[in-house]
Each structure stands twice: as structure tokens, then as C-alpha cells.
């Protein structure tokens, strides 16, 4: 079937199989930042923004996304780097396999969360797993980035 | 110290954060053959017949491998130095399959769909054998897991495959039984630890292609590129010079990628077909068919005198290495060698036991590497003994623990599979760490818990040590090259697996040469281009590779001064080099930029290269003290971790921000092992927790507040005073949390993971 | 599940025909990894089933409303002590909540579901395309129903509700969950047993026929644990679930009468 997607601000048409996910589509156009790890929608690595909302691209059928706008970190590099500098200063970019998906979720959190207390931040980001960092450096970087550090 | 002890951003951090191509699969050619592996549905079986014809008839299938058409060379996949302390017990493919998930056949096809289809068309007739699934019944079981005549040990490690024993070791000093008899207080406990999974976010993957010279190039998610080169050559039976291994960026290792995984298959498929080939494990394969932490049963007996002096420690271990014996002996030995020296005043110590084969997923290297298992047993027992002695557990530790400038006979007796090295602990700030951590977490106030509701808080302590590389075995080397306009290439075999070692090695190089870190371009882990390094394991990179870099950097500095002197026409003795300007006392000067450009193009032309190696004579231990505060729900048994405070002595942290995250990350993996990461098997031996839905690593909501501080410390043998920091963080959570639970509700949990259900059961029994 | 064929329905009738022909209705697809079956699926996402409406007596939630929309809804969070919104908000991560739909949770009859337990306690009704309105209890207990869920309907009255769950880690499925609703009577729902949510009928009856005091709350909680069925799975044993049930029912009752 044919579907239309806007990917990182570019309109594209795809001829897809019903079983293909948003992740599969992104791989087919060589987007490297979106990675699959758990293959069960749990880890958050394959996070992309669909119409501004973070979704697990490995668990979302491309056909369902028809007409939607998908954003990956490639389209928000400038903002990502702004936050990334804080992450990097904290040493919190470790193996970084999970980092692009995490950064996208942070971007979405910045626009959607009302209170930036530790608990609310951690709760918003709970779907982004990280095995290296122990999460503490993430939190320090986020608070500096949002200007809410003590 | 200008460039070290400084938190500079990781040099590859921003590029990685933006998701730029950097990992193995990002480099796999689009036309690569896709490799899929048919895996055993039986815990133990012999392949009676295997028919691959139907699979091979599929048009897009290029190659099907079974034990019948692959080289039969027995190796160990452990990824250790040579000769390995692990027995050689693994063929590329074998007629026996030894666990559910073991390799039966390998398919290479033009696309994934075809490869998967081909797997279904392979017809296998198995002779199902009785599996050994209980490691306490493995020794002498009527099923022999490794009946093949080729399996062998490389040097004596107590290997006895006819009894399912992969390794055996015993040591003692003093007469433990005699000393225990004279002790006022004796505690005897048994502990069980489980097969924790590494859960690297990047699944194990490997990619091979053949270059114009007919050499096989392997790009692999590995911690040990040099060992991969050696072992692939050995297994395939091809000359080592025909293989190049490149490690790109790695999506997490933690020991899980020290051993080889898919490299045999991509290398072999590429050598047979001449085509690039790639293999990426599914998540289920990562859980079922890579490696786990060694599950252990640990018996500890510990005795103290009336005054609360620990007099004797007896530690006996049965370790389960699963179907293959990667790291069998060494993980088990480290459970003693990286824990027992903590209480070095004991008059008598005995350590020993066996490592047995079972028909489970093989165990292998995993951050902490025995130390975490041993620490759980030892540090839980120390708490029990302190209670018997009527002493506060923290005071009890302070009284008995190792101090700076002391030693332990263990250092000399126990190495990694061999004898150890004698060593005085030149840097040990355990006393400071203990006092400081106590102060930060408010121990004195918190230890007197009040039981006013269903939820009770408690606090517990544990101390830990690690090593810094394997002395007299692990070698790292570094090569520094001066370029025109005064920048340097630092070439290292050391393997950055996300830890930031490329960055800290650049810092050490910059400090040694005396230039800014921005002048150092790092290239790492390519067996053709970078000098040898054993790899990223055994907490070795900062200490071993770092020392090599420091030596190479100091040599480069000398070379610069010498060449500068020649160009300025004076003696090297009269030269000062400030990182930018090479000048004499009488005012002659040349910039490094000019000097290096001259050396290439105009005057006294030559390439300056310094190359140095380092192999430790000692392995200075980093130390750590930890306090866990928990809240136990007495009606559900649920444990919430409130606060985890550690103070670490890792010598000089070369990059404090990266060192801190190493510790924090280690702690959270340790918390995962302690409270969340459960491992269960079906009756037939199948691993049931083989997805992220059933194997739960901690989320950021599960871990409470983590506080990490560093002690001021300097080890004279380390590069700029540094010791290791990669593993020590993981060691304490099992014991500290178990001790905190005891402090809160008075039940002693001796089996990992600590489950709410077990606590509730223990609480109910206590009420009776 | 694996997708054999995907069809986006243009009408409910078309979807219903596909359903009768063996197709499966997909919600958000958040839990499609839970099974390996290869199926043809029908997607109703263009049929206007994503809504939250407040009527005089009821709140209606369209089948394609996501858990995140329920979490964020000012309408839903202003009723039943906000329990439905709060519970939606602790399920998995934000990514999953952005795609998981309420219809998918109900249609899947997932045992682990926290939201189902809440809806059951709130005495929700589902409106089906062919069969019309039906109590959630009836829907959950009859697995044979081949119909399309259009919406969930909850009576507003002045219900107070509470929800408690026990889970091993934050974003894991519950080992057990309990929701209590106090209207004129008490409704107690227990889920993740690990089978899907049911009413603790004996406990409800006891509580509704006896004076409301701490002793009777304790007694009702005991009855709930003793009379319901629990099973073993990877996450916990049935005995443990029984104990936790007693504790959580007690806590949920105490919370709701505050």
C-alpha cells in the first residue's frame, strides 16, 4: 500500500507492506540515529516524534502513521546539541546507543511537562532505558539545560 | 596537572548523541549477506541427522553451515590473553548441542526474510540426552556435557570434563579449622547468586568483508579486537595475518563482549563466499545465546575473637559456568581474590571450590567478575558477625579492614588462574571513605529505624575493592605521532566501549607531552593500525593502557625537546617546552608548530613517533564504601531504595565526570542484579526471562538518590596517580541492600535477586 | 503478533465484516509484540473513535483514545479522585502511553492491565457496534464476543475511587492491582492475578452489608484474598498474590473512605 509521511520536514511517499513499522521505514532511508534494541516497545531507543509526540517506532505500524510527521534527531540537531553539551559535560553520554531516542524524549518533555521537579522528569523519561549511565548524569544535565538546577 | 583530573567532555560525545553512524551495523555494506542461526530447542542433544538441502535450494540462500562442513578446531571464546585460563571446549559448530539456544546451523542469505525461511527448512533429527540443569548435581552426573576428546586445558586449572568439572582451585594460609575453634564468635552462611544478563543496548553483532588482498576484515562489537583476531584465526584454521579486526563504537559491553560471539560466523561466511556478511543477534538471542554472570553457591564461615577481631575466613564456592567454560576459573577465583584481602588481619584464610558445567547458557565475563558474588557473601557475613560481636557493623569494618601500606597474603597466592603478585597497598583511603560516606548519608541517625507504619526504613553498609588490570599478564601499548603544525595522533589498541577511554587517554597523552588535549587525535582498536592492547576488561584501561600512553607521551616530549634543541643549535638540557614554545634560557625559540612543519618539509626531516608498552607489576586496588538506605513495605515485602551513597578511592580520577558516571552506572547495574533482574528457567532448561518485558533492568524511577564522591588519593604506580574505576561501582549493592533490609526488618536474605515475595515470606516466618 | 495484511477501515460496517472474516482489530499496537500469531488486522483510527466527552451523567471515552490522552484529560482527572488519569499515567513509558488505546486494553482483555481494573471498579460500560451497551464485567467474562468496541461509558455520580498496585519495578506489569470505588456501595476490582480483573464479590457483599469500620475493612480484605483465584507466573506465585491482595484491598478501602 502507498502511504505519505513527512519525515524530518520532507514529504515522502512509500510503498509499504502492512507489516512494516515506522522503524523499518526509517531504516530504509538510512536514518542511523533511530535504533532498535528490545524489539518489544519497552526500551525507548527507537523513539521518534510522531506529530510531536514520542512513540516507539518499532511498535508502530507505518500504515497507521500515514499522513503524519515524523521527527528524528537529525531534524533537531541544533537543540539536541544545546542539551548535548550539558550531557557531555556530565559524562552522561556513555555508549550512547540509547542517547538519540532519549534526547528526543527530553525535547518532547521540555514542551509538555508542567513541573520540572526530579520526580516528574524521571517519570516522564521512564520509558527510556539506559544501561551505562545510572541515570544520575542525565538528570543533572536536564536540570542544567532547563535552568532548574539547584 | 593541567589536562588530567579535569572533566573535559567526551571527544566523541556530541557525534554519538546526534546518532551519527558509528556502530558495527552502521558500517555493514547494503549488499551484505544476512546471517541467521538455527538454535537448539534442547538443553542437551546429539544431532543424529541434519539435512540442509531444502534450505540450500532456496534461490537467495548462499551458504548453509553445519558441524559437517566447518573447520573442527577447538577453542575458547573467552577473549583472554594467551594461553587462556579457560579450557578449550568450543567448536564453531558441533554435533552436540549443550543448551537451549546453542548453535545448530548457520544460514547466509541475500536478505533476512530468506534467511529466516531457510532456518525453518533445515531438518534436524536429535538424540535428546538428559540435561544437567541443577548445578549442585552437575559433578559426577551421568550425563557428560563435554565428551569430545579434543577438549583440553591450556595449563593446569583442575579441568575434569568427565565429571563435568571445568575448573577447581583451593588455597589457604594459616590453619582455618584450628583458628575457628579458638574464635569466640563464628558465623556460617550459604549464599546464592544468579545469572544476571549484561543487557547491552546494542545487541551482539559482527560484520565481515574481504579486502582486495583476500584478507578478512571483521568489524565487530567487541571489547577485545586482538583476542578476536587470534581466536578467529585459530578456530577457522587460517593464518592470523589474513585477519584484521576493527572495533568501531560499541553500544555497551560490561564484559559481555569480551568473549567472541558472531565473529566466527561472519568471518567464515565471508571467507567461503567472498561476500560481505553480517550477523546481529535478536534480543532473545542476546539473552539466551550470549553469556551471563556465573551463578554461584557460596559458603562462608567467619570467626572473630571477643574483641571483635576477624580471625579466620573460610569461603567455599560452587560456580556454574553453563555449557561452555569461558572465564570459569578466573571469575570464581576473583570472588575470593578481590574480596578476602579487605579483611587482611585474619590469621587464617581458606578459599576453594569447583566450577561445573551445566546445560544452561554459558556464563562469562561480567563487570564485577566474581567480586560482586564474593562481596555479597562476605559483606553479608561481616554484618552477621558484627551483630554477634555486639558491634556496630560499620565500626566492625573499620576495626578489621585493610589500610594503606598494608598487604595481604592473598595478593601473592591468588592471581587470575595463576599465582598472584606480592603487593603493598600504596594507596588506600578506605578509612576516609567510610567516615565520609557515613557522614553524607546520616548513618548514625538512620540506623535506629523506627517502626511506626507498614513501611520501615533501614540502612546498610558494604565495602569493596577491585584490581587495576591483571598484573604480569595484561599489556597495553600506545603510539604517538607528531604531525605538521604540531598536532598528534594517539594510536591505541585500548578499546573504548562507551566508557570514554579514548578521551581519558587523550588527556593523559596531552598531560605527558605538555600540550592541550585539543592537539590529540585519537584512533583506537584496529589490529592493522594500532599497537597491541589486551582490551577493555579487568578494570585495565586507565591503569594499563593509561600507563603506556603516559610513557609514550613523556618520550614524545623528550623527542620534541631533542629535535627542538637541534633546530635551535643548543643542548637539550637548555631547552624549556611549555606546550607551545620550545625555547632556550638565552632567548632562542621555535614554536611546536614551526618545529613540526620543519621536520616534515624543510629541516632535519623525519617523522617523530614514540611507542611504549606497559604491563603492570602490581594491580593497585581501588576501594569503595557504600551505604544503602531502603524502605521495606512489611505488608508486601517490597523494597524501595531511598538513597545509595558511596565514596570511592580510585586514585586520581583522570576525568572526574566520566569516573563518576562509571561509578553511578556500576551501582545501578548492581542494584538491578540485587532487586530486579530475575532469571527463571522452564523445566526443560529454557530461559524464561529472555525479553525486556520479562527481564527488567532498573528504570530511572527505581533507584532512589545516588550520591558519589571521590576521596583524594594518589597511587604512585598509576598514570598521574590513577587506579581503575570501571568495575568497583557494581560490587556493593547486593550486600549493602541486604544489610539495609536486615537493619530495617530483621530478615536476612541470602539469595539473589532479593524479591518482595521472599522478604514477605521471611517476615511471616519471623512472626511465628 | 505479525501482520499478514493491514486494512484501514473506511466504515464500521467494513470493519465488522473484516472482523467476521477473521481479522483482528488493532488499537495502537503497543502490545503487538506479546504474541507471535500472524494475523490480518483492521485499523479503525480514521473512524473518529478518539474522544473524551462529558455528558450530564456520564463520561465517555472513545475506543481509540490513548492512555496519554486519558492521563492528560482535565475532564477525566476531575472525577473519581483522578484515579483513572493517575493510573493511566503510571503505565509503561510515555512512548507506549502515546500509542496504547483504551479500546486495545479492553479488547485485549490483558490480565496485567491496570486501567481495566480501574474501569471495572468504576462499573464502566462498553458500547459495542452490534451488541450495544454492555457492562465491562460482562464483556470481560465472555471471550467469544466478536464485536467492535466504540467507547467506554462511566457514570459520574459522586464516585470516589482509589487504585493500588504492586509491581516489581516501576514500568513493569503489575504483580497485582486493586481498584475500589465507593458510590452507594463499594465495588472492589482485583486484576493482574495474573488473570484479568474481576470483582471481589464476597468482599463487596460483606462490606456492603456490614457497618463501615476498620475491623470490617480488614475482614473484607481478608475475604477478597481468600475467595479470589490467583495464579503463578514469572512475576510472582499465587500465594504471594493472595497476601498482596489482602494488603492492597485494605489500603484501597482505607484510601477511598478518607
TrEMBL record, chain A:
Keywords: 2Fe-2S, Iron, Iron-sulfur, Metal-binding, Oxidoreductase. Residues 1-76 form the 2Fe-2S ferredoxin-type domain. One of its GO terms (molecular function) is metal ion binding. The keyword NAD does not apply. Coiled coil: none annotated. Pfam families: Fer2 (PF00111), Fer2_2 (PF01799). It comes from the Bacteria. The keyword Nuclease does not apply. PANTHER family: OXIDOREDUCTASE WITH IRON-SULFUR SUBUNIT, XANTHINE DEHYDROGENASE IRON-SULFUR-BINDING SUBUNIT XDHC-RELATED. This is Carbon-monoxide dehydrogenase small subunit. It comes from Caloramator quimbayensis.
From TrEMBL, chain B:
Keywords: Molybdenum, Oxidoreductase. GO terms for molecular function: iron ion binding; oxidoreductase activity. The keyword Endoplasmic reticulum does not apply. The keyword Oxidoreductase applies. Residues 18-130 form the Aldehyde oxidase/xanthine dehydrogenase a/b hammerhead domain. It holds the Pfam family MoCoBD_1. InterPro entries: Ald_Oxase/Xan_DH_a/b (IPR000674), Ald_Oxase/Xan_DH_a/b_sf (IPR036856), Ald_Oxase/xanthine_DH-like (IPR016208), AldOxase/xan_DH_MoCoBD1 (IPR008274), AldOxase/xan_DH_MoCoBD2 (IPR046867), AldOxase/xan_DH_Mopterin-bd_sf (IPR037165). Coiled coil: none annotated. This is CO or xanthine dehydrogenase, Mo-binding subunit.
TrEMBL record, chain C:
SUPFAM superfamilies: CO dehydrogenase flavoprotein C-terminal domain-like, FAD-binding/transporter-associated domain-like. It comes from the Bacteria. Transmembrane segments: none annotated. Keywords: Flavoprotein, Oxidoreductase. Residues 1-159 form the FAD-binding PCMH-type domain. GO terms for molecular function: FAD binding; oxidoreductase activity. Gene3D superfamilies: 3.30.465.10, CO dehydrogenase flavoprotein, C-terminal domain. PANTHER family: XANTHINE DEHYDROGENASE FAD-BINDING SUBUNIT XDHB-RELATED, XANTHINE DEHYDROGENASE SUBUNIT C-RELATED. This is CO or xanthine dehydrogenase, FAD-binding subunit. It comes from Caloramator quimbayensis. The lineage of its organism: Bacteria, Bacillati, Bacillota, Clostridia, Eubacteriales.
